[in-house]
Amino acid sequence: MTRCLLALGSNLGDRAAMLREAVRAVADLPACQVIARSRWHETTPVGGPDGQEAFLNGALLLETNLGPQELGSAILRIERALGRKRTERWDARTIDLDLLLYGTEAINTPGLVVPHPRMSYRRFALEPAAEIAGEMVHAGSGWTIGGLLTHLRAAPRYVAITAVNAAIAEWLASQLARLLGCPRLEETQPNSATKGASGEASAIKSADDALGLLQRSHWQNERTLSTRLTGVDYQNASDRLPVVSGFWWDALVAGRSCANFLDCPGVECLVKPALVIAIDQEHSENFFQKINKKKVDKNFVFSGLSRQDLCERIDRSGIGPLARIQANDPAVVIQEAVAAIHSAWL
Hints:
With 346 residues, the chain is of the alpha/beta class.
């Protein structure tokens, strides 16, 4: 039998009763045995329409002889039987059931993606899951569930953005700074005037400058950064916001020849982000044109990585919590990134 991990959530009606019904329905599935259930966690809704009630979230550990597609289809049938209606994305719901893990398998089909593509940074999913399955391995990152949760809680509150082109990563960093008030790492350069939530930041002129900003010693000496060196939830709301940047990966790989640069000498002195946001698009040139709001000259050479290069970066086992955004609409990219940050901390 294969050991699987499910997430449950409800924020309409009698939430606890609905979750109990869902647990019974899963337990009644053929060739399935529920091994453990987490306690219920009350959490704030993330990403959807305003005015929603709080969620109750939990996790189920089960063993099954059903295949992943069979189990996924059975979960959808349970949702429909319990009144789940899919109208607006991230809207309130009577019940939400997600297949988080199916053993150690990685599955990517039009109808089913496992591990769940957003679970590695969603604390409302990780916290109940870690109660009952902290040792299970998230196949995408190679980390255990407990390890992912510990990293989000304890790592420096730093969000590193990467994309096939540095201009796209910098665009998203500026949007997050403007919308959320997140400070940008570039603003902490020596002799740099702090721009606050404006999204503007001093240009980094060299890889050495970028690496200097990633030094743990630099973070310890800057008040804006030092308050974010641990995952402690400070009373000051502004200190709970993460620091963002769009240059982390480019700085890290500059001049390094290691097969796995995350293991290169000296990397341990650098601040590792708690969350990496990767903008992964099939048509980056079109996206670049959209965010610049002007037609790209036909002779313009789109510089940067290939999509294959980007995928090789973000598929490495040492990355940890990763929000992979595969949207070609700038508004959707921003929505996904904001929701990822809210899921991790706010």
